Amino acid sequence: MFRSLNLKLTLAFALVVLLAIGTVALVANRSMVSEFTTYLQSDPQAQADHLATGLADLYSKNGSWDGVTSFMSSEPAGIVSDWVLVDASGNDVAASRPALLHVDMQSLDYEAFAPVISNGQTVGAIYVSSVPMSAGQGNGMMGMGNGMGSMHQQMVSGGIQVLGTAEQNFVDSFNHSLLLAGGVSGALALILGIVFMTQITSPVRRLTHAAKRIASGDLSQRVHLKSKDEIGELAETFNRMAENLSQNEKTRRVMVADIAHELRTPLTVLQGNLEAMMDGVVQPTRDNIKSLHDESLLLNRLVGDLRELSLAESGQLKLHRQPTNLGDLVGKVISGQRSEAEEKRIAVELQTDNKLPLLNVDPDRVSQIVRNLISNAIRYTPDGGKVAVSIRPLVTGEAKAMAEIAVTDNGCGIDAEDLPYVFDRFYRTDRSRSRARGGSGIGLAIVKQLAELHGGAARVTSQAGLGSTFSVILPVSTG
After folding, report:
1. Are 242 and 219 in contact (CB under 8 A)?
2. Residue 353 and residue 461 share a domain
3. Would you say 245 and 219 are in contact if contact means Cβ atoms under 8 Å apart?
4. What is the pLDDT of residues 307-351, one digit of tens each?
5. Are residues 432 and 373 in the same domain?
C-alpha cells in the first residue's frame, strides 16, 4: 500500500510515539489515582476532609441533607470503617450504623472529624474512624464551639466516593497537563524523527539511483557517504561491487581482444602461406609445410590452454591425485627443458630437500605448473644467465605442512605496479613484446589456477633489474 520508505518510517514512528504517549498517560493516570486513594485510606484526617468536600457539594445542590443516605450508599468501595454525620446544631443526620445515632458524640471513639462548609456557612460535621466506633471516653475533638459535627463520608458495605469534586478537578487538571506535555513532546519527537529518517532514506535513495544506473550499463557510478554506520558500510560494499564489475568488464574486453589477437597471428601466418603456395609464390617444400604445422600446433596449444584455464577457473578440471616424489618430478621437467635453456646458454640448477615427504598431488598438473614457471624464467632471462629451482618444506601459520617450489631467475625483473597482475590472463609486463618473447599471457594464469585447485597458492617476488622468484605452495597431504 505504501511504496515510499520515508512514508512508512514516518507512519511507524508516529504510531510508536502515539502508543508511547498513550501508555505513559494511562499508567500515570492510574498510578496517580491509586496513590491518591491510598493516601486517603491511610490518613483518617485526609479522609474526613475529603468526605466533607463531597457532602458540602451535596448540601449545596439540595439545600438540605436529603439524599445523604442514598448518596453514601451509591459510592464505590469505602475508605473508613465507621462515620457519623451531624448538622450545624450537632444533631445526628446519618451514620454508618444505626447504633451510632443518638449517641453523645463525646462518648464515641473516633479518629478525625471535619466541618462541612457550604457557601461559606458551616452546615455540619463528619466524624470518621478506621475501626468500628464504640461509646467510650471522648477524645475531645468534638469541639467547634457551636456543637457542629464533623462529617466524613463513610463506606461500609457500599462505601463512599473515592474522589470528590475537588479531587476530580485535580485529576482532570493533571490529565490535561499530561496530554499537553504528551502532545508537545510527540510533535517534537515526530519532527526529530522526520529529520533522522531523512538522513536514513536520503543515502538509500542515492544507492537506489546508482544501482539503477549500473543496471543500465553505467559502471562508473559510486556512492560516497561520510557515515560509518550500516548505511555507510552498505555504500562501501556497493562501491566495491561496482569497482569489481567495472574491472571485470574491462578484463572481459581485454580478454576478448587478446584472444582475438592471439588467434589471429597464427591464423594470419597460415592463411598467408597457404595463399602464397596456391599462387605459386611459395613452394610447398618440407620446411614450409613444417612451418605451417608449427603454427597449427601453436594455435592448438593456445586453444587448449584457454580450455584448461576455463575449466580450472570454473572448478571443473579434475585432478588425479597420487603420492608423488616432488624432487623426481621436477627433475624430469628440467631435463625436458634442457635444450630450450641451452639455446640461450642458461644454466638450470635444482636444489631439493631429500627429507620432503611424498605429496598427494596430480603429477601431470604439477609438471605443467613447473614447466610453465621454468619456460617463463628462461624467456625472461638473458643469454648466459641462470635459473635456480628449489624445493623445500615449510610450515604455515596454521602449522599445516606445505611444500614450496620456487623458480628464480636473474632477468629483467618486474616493476612493482605490475606485480599484482602477473597471474592475470593475457597480462604482459611489456605489451610491446611479441608472442615469441612475451608468451601468450596464459601460462602464469594456469599456474595460479592449478595451484589453488590443489589447495595451495602461487606467489611472486621481484625487483626491477635484479630478477624474479615465482613460487608455488602445495599442501603435503589433502587430509
Report:
1. yes
2. yes
3. yes
4. 777 777 777 778 889 998 988 999 998 888 888 888 889 999 999
5. yes
